[in-house]
Amino acid sequence: MRNLLILFTILTTELLMAQTHIVTKHNGDIMNVNIIKTKNNLVYFTLPESSEEKTISQFAISQVNEKSRNEIKTISEKISVVGKSDYGKVKVLQQSQTQGLKEAGIITSFLGKTKGDSNQSFLDQAEIRLKQNAALKGSPFIVIVSNKPRELKAIMYTY
To answer: Which residues pair with 46 in a beta bridge?
Structure first.
C-alpha cells in the first residue's frame, strides 16, 4: 500500500511539472517553458529540464500557448513607432523589466529648466523629450538613466 501511495505521488507531481507552455516572442523566437507567475510586467518561468527560475518582460512576449488546455493567450501587442509623432506609444520601463528585449542604443538630450517650473513639470517634459527622441529612432521602449537638467539620458530597447 505504501509503495502504491509513493508511486501515485510521483506520477501526480510529474504530471504537474510536465505542464509546459509555448511562448512566442515578438521577434519570432519560440520557447518551451513552464510559466510560474506574472508580476510587475515580468513573466517568471522555468525551462522544462531545469528548476532555475528565470524572468522575461511581458512586452517581449507576443502570445502563450498552454499545452494542457490547448489555449492561446495574447500577452502584449507589438508596438511599432514610425516617427516623432508616435512618442505616445513609447513605454518607459524599469531596468528589471527589459529582460528579453534588445538594447538599441543610448539617447541623450538637453532640456533647460525655466524659472518657476516645478520639479514634476520638468520631469514630465524630460520624459516627453526622451520619448520623442526614441520614437524618432524607431525604438518602442526606453529606460531613463539620468534626468538631470543638463544631462537627459536613456537607453533604448527594441524587440
So the answer is: 34
